[in-house]
């Protein structure tokens, strides 16, 4: 499971769709031998795939996978690039997939040397375009672990012509041991600069995920990749466990453009030789269990996990595997893509890479997108950026990409993958680079007296601001719970700004000066481990933790009681701030994702001499419209906006007072003329009308793209219809409508906290709605869902079927009178589907109503009482299941003389396709009444035992929407 979490980000790199058909791409599988490493005689075999476009020779692109993945993880990206005309080479890095060797964390002596050998190999292929002898025209891209490899390779090998690293790091030691207040204050000229201290706080959550992904000798990731590839060596038998001495990378290339082999010797440079201060074995002499890691990496992790600190030797080991060690010599044009939802490698890591490469004279473009390790893969616009970058610098076609800056601003409202909920802001330059103007910042006064905060013994209980690797999965639930889990009573000090007078967009790292002192008479150590965060507080009381991230710091505190004053650099984020919002700066003593201070202590936190928080912003032009138009009110005065809002509220109240009272006998759902057209002219739903009566279990059917989910989303108020009306129980449906409280829904995938039980997840979800606990009816919902004693088990141990049933129970909280479910049986096996069928029947048995969208026609036929069939945004059939099935006129007759019956039926006008099956005779009556056919059989002396419709729901469905449609 951990490997899936880490591997979920390995395929974040891609290019836009090529012009050539993917069928024109050919692949060649091979194992390429590389040097085992310094002092190791046996070579290591790398499992590789070469993708060849329709026309060669062509420029080449190396696509590196992320940690925990393999070459299979980037297959789709490689095919996209090959379809665009590139020769593409993918490989499973040593220690992963079916490759041999051990994981050395992008070491110059191992993984980087392997990649240089692959460039040599490409230079010998006739399909690859050369710039000179032994010098292929080649670019490199990769996500996370693969992104760092892109930067390192460009620093060590001058043959690299362009790179596009995605969501990666600058200094791995700083990323895993961040310090937001130590060392030299960061420069204030770039948006996301932060302090890189020497002794940060251990990011144990993410580090543990990475180590567990490679700790097994067979490697969960390797086993998974091997099964995808149809077998292969997933162990480390291709390489010995360690080697001694130093030496250069073998198999050199032919071109003089190559540099000497990377670093020999030095702390942490030789595999199998312990760096100073890092143990290679336990105190009793027992070798450490390293799985697929080198002994050095394993020992460094063990040291950090047990001490919570980074030693100088570990810092140097990680630094040699970091782009920071080579950014001053990267000359290849560099496109840096970083995610705005990323608690592993934040925006500050891309900022540092950009500053360092630009300072050395390199060409840099920076893109921040609305995703990351916690938020998902880049969208099409970023994919196009990468493709255009390579097209210009490798294909030598197209205009030169700008060396500017683009960032995404999200509205905070989800409207599905087909509807944009944010905008992209493009600036001509990245502030502060190579003479560019510095980032602008406004300073907002903060209010709040000094406050005492407690560090509990062992750092437990700890605040939860994020769950490493699961940010995208827990999604909206995490956002709703952050106000409860990130601010534990007594462990946090908070300081608030006044309400903002005008909207603005925060883009980068805010800063604030705080003081930390000992509370007289209370326990305290020599240093405080603290976590800074920044949130917004809207006028209605809703709090949002920006970036779901914190800024950790170690603060040495004087023993004499005098305060230590530090400048705290808060997490770099992008967030639209509205007029009336307050900024809340918090400083807490614990965070679940980091190693805590174990000793109990009481600290007094206050504001510094300048009690303000800086809010950086980067002006630019919007290139993507926003469905929720944040920023459009910038030019409108606050008084005018307030007056307009007051007028609208008063008008709404008058309409509510004049509106007739809802009809108590109104049906649960009435839809009339419903339509939805998106920006750009695409119409997903057109003129949809149907009713849902009490007690119905109605199935909403249709092929992919028919508009089913769009209808459900409009019913839940998630998106607005372009035309038509929707009423539930006689009341209009719309975003925020009170009647929505009578509707339960499972439209988006549910997010559950895996360490809590099913029952606790439901209670927390209900608490987040703000409704009274007594109204939840948790026990009744659980009884209907049929989870039994499993509700008291951790959700992390649930099967897919149990998660689906828990999701249905969540939708049933409050026992809503109308239940909307989108594909509730996805991922369930037949017994689980049968159980789900019973759940829905039990729920509707008491007069409640269920509307379910499904692609399982047989299940709809057995579960639902009524069906609405949609095709191309229209309703093409509406009625009971029996009526829909019987609509085509196909009938079956049980008779005593089948052959004679077939002749009689075949002689009737219009009847066709008569077939005999034992005592059954099937016929397509084609409009002839079934009673007339029976009368003709009886008149002819044929004994008829039964007569009925022949078709299944699937037959009716295919007739309605076409034989080539798939639900």
From TrEMBL:
EC number: 3.6.3.25
Protein name: Sulfate-transporting ATPase
Family assignment from sequence similarity: Belongs to the ABC transporter superfamily.
Organism: Pseudonocardia dioxanivorans (strain ATCC 55486 / DSM 44775 / JCM 13855 / CB1190)
SUPFAM superfamilies: alpha/beta-Hydrolases (SSF53474), Galactose-binding domain-like (SSF49785), P-loop containing nucleoside triphosphate hydrolases (SSF52540)
Start and end residues of each ABC transporter domain: 669-897
InterPro entries: AAA+_ATPase, AB_hydrolase_fold, ABC_transporter-like_ATP-bd, ABC_transporter-like_CS, Galactose-bd-like_sf, P-loop_NTPase, Xaa-Pro-like_dom, Xaa-Pro_dipept_C
Transmembrane segments: 630-650
Residue numbers spanned by region Disordered: 222-282
Coiled coil: none
Compositional bias annotation for Gly residues: 242-255
Comp. bias regions, Low complexity: 270-279
């Amino acid at each position: 499971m951990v490997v899936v979490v880490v591997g979920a980000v390995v395929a974040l790199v891609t290019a836009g769709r090529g012009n050539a058909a993917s069928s024109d791409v050919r692949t060649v599988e091979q194992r390429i031998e590389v040097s085992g490493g310094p002092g190791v005689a046996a070579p290591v075999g790398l499992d590789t795939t070469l993708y060849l476009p329709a026309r060669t020779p062509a420029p080449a692109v190396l696509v590196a996978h992320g940690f925990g993945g393999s070459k299979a993880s980037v297959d789709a990206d490689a095919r996209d690039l090959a379809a665009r005309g590139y020769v593409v080479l993918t490989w499973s890095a040593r220690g992963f997939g079916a490759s041999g060797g051990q994981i050395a964390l992008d070491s110059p002596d191992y993984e980087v040397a392997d990649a240089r050998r692959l460039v040599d190999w490409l230079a010998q292929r006739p399909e690859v375009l050369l710039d000179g002898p032994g010098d292929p025209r080649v670019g490199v891209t990769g996500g996370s672990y693969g992104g760092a490899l892109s930067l390192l390779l460009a620093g060590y090998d001058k043959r690299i012509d362009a790179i596009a690293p995605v969501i990666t790091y600058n200094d791995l030691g700083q990323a895993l041991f961040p310090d937001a207040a130590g060392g030299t204050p960061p420069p204030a000229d770039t948006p996301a600069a932060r302090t890189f201290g020497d002794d940060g706080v251990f990011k144990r959550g993410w580090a543990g995920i990475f180590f567990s992904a490679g700790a097994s000798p067979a490697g969960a990731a390797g086993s998974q990749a091997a099964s995808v590839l149809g077998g292969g060596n997933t162990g480390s038998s291709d390489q010995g466990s360690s080697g001694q001495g130093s030496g250069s990378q073998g198999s050199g290339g032919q071109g003089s453009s190559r540099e000497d082999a990377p670093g020999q010797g030095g702390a942490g440079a030789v595999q199998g030789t312990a760096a100073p201060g890092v143990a290679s074995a336990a105190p009793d002499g027992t070798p450490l269990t390293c799985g697929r890691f080198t002994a050095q990496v394993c020992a460094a992790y063990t040291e950090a996990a047990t001490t919570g600190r980074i030693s100088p030797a570990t810092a140097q080991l990680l630094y040699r595997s970091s782009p920071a060690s080579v950014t001053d010599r990267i000359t290849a044009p560099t496109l840096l893509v970083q995610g705005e939802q990323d608690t592993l490698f934040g925006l500050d890591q891309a900022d540092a890479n950009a500053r360092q490469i630009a300072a050395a004279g390199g060409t840099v473009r920076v893109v921040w997108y609305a995703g990351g390790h916690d938020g998902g893969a880049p969208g099409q616009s970023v994919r196009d950026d990468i493709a255009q970058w390579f097209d210009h610098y490798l294909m030598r076609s197209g205009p030169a990409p700008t060396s500017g800056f683009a960032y995404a601003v999200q509205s905070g409202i989800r409207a599905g993958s087909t509807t944009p909920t944010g905008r992209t802001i493009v600036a001509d330059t990245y502030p502060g680079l190579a003479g560019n103007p510095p980032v602008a910042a406004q300073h907002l006064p903060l209010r709040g007296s000094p406050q005492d905060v407690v560090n509990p013994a062992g750092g437990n209980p700890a605040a939860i601001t994020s769950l490493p690797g699961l940010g995208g999965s827990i999604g909206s639930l995490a956002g709703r719970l952050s106000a409860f889990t990130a601010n534990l009573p007594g462990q946090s000090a908070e300081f608030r700004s006044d309400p903002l007078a005008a909207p603005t967009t925060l883009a980068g790292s805010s800063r604030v000066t705080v003081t930390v002192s000992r509370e007289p008479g209370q326990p305290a150590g020599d240093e405080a481990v603290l976590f800074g965060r920044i949130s917004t507080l809207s006028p209605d009381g809703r709090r949002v933790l920006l970036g779901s991230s914190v800024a950790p710091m170690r603060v040495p505190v004087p023993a004499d009681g005098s305060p230590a004053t530090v400048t705290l650099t808060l997490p770099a984020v992008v967030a639209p701030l509205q007029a009336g919002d307050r900024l809340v700066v918090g400083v807490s003593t614990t965070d679940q994702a980091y190693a805590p201070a174990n000793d109990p202590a009481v600290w007094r936190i206050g504001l510094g001499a300048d009690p303000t928080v800086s809010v950086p912003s980067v002006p630019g032009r919007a290139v993507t419209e926003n469905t929720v138009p944040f920023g459009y009110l910038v030019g409108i005065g606050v008084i005018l906006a307030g007056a307009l809002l007051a007028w609208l509220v008063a008008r709404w109240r008058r309409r509510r007072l004049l509106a007739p009272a809802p009809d108590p006998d109104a049906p649960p759902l009435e839809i009339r003329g419903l339509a939805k057209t998106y920006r750009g002219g695409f119409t997903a739903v057109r003129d949809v009308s149907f009713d849902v009566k009490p007690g119905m279990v109605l199935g909403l059917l249709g092929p992919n793209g028919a508009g089913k989910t769009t209808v459900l989303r409009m019913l839940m108020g998630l998106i607005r219809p372009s035309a038509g009306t929707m009423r539930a129980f006689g009341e209009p449906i719309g975003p925020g409508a009170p009647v929505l409280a009578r509707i339960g829904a499972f439209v988006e995938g549910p997010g559950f906290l895996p360490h809590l039980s099913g029952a606790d997840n439901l209670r927390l979800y209900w608490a987040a709605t703000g409704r009274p606990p007594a109204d939840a009816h948790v026990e009744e919902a659980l009884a209907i869902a049929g989870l039994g004693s499993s509700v008291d088990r951790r959700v992390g141990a649930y099967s897919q079927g149990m998660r689906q049933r828990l999701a249905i129970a969540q939708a049933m909280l409050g026992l809503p009178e109308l239940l909307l479910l989108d594909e509730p049986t996805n991922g369930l096996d037949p017994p689980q589907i049968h159980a789900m069928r019973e759940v829905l029947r039990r729920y509707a048995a008491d007069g409640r109503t269920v509307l379910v969208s499904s692609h399982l026609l047989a299940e709809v036929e057995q579960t639902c009482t009524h069906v609405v069939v949609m095709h191309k945004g229209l309703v093409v059939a509406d009625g009971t299941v029996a009526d829909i099935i019987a609509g085509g006129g196909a009938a079956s007759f049980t008779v005593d003389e089948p052959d004679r019956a077939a002749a009689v039926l075949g002689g009737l006008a219009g009847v066709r396709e008569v077939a005999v099956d034992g005592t059954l005779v099937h016929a397509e009556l084609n409009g002839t009444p079934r009673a007339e056919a029976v009368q003709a059989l009886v008149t002819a002396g044929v004994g008829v035992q039964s007569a009925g419709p022949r078709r299944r729901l699937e037959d009716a469905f295919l007739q309605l929407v076409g034989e080539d449609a798939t639900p």
